[in-house]
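Pinned message: reference record for IS5 family transposase
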Amino acid sequence: MTDTQRARIEALLPDRTPKRGGRWRDHREVIDAIAWKIQTGAQWVQLPEKYANWRGVYNRLRMWSADGTWERVFTALLAQADADEELHWVVSVDSTIVRAHQHATGARKRGLLPWPVLRCRPGR
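Predicted structure (tokens):
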């Protein structure tokens, strides 16, 4: 994350001193770790050591998702980009139709079964 990007979102991020425990790791490092994980698609345990413990990064991602931090950051960045006229909307509509063969749908070949269906043998 660049210094300019950090300056845009710094005020929107929570205080670095949580209610319990010690002081949090720098938000910039955690956001870089989250971005690395999303870009690579790797598992959390494969997070490089330079980004610290993967559990801390994962927990911060979860907390920020639950308390609305990510939504607040996204909304503010979107509004700022729209106000600066840096936002160009592109709408794409996909009208692809995928058809399956009739046998792939699981339909019966001989019509519907009578209701109710009793499949037990007489005498049992």
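Pinned by admin. Summary line: Residues 43-88 form one domain.
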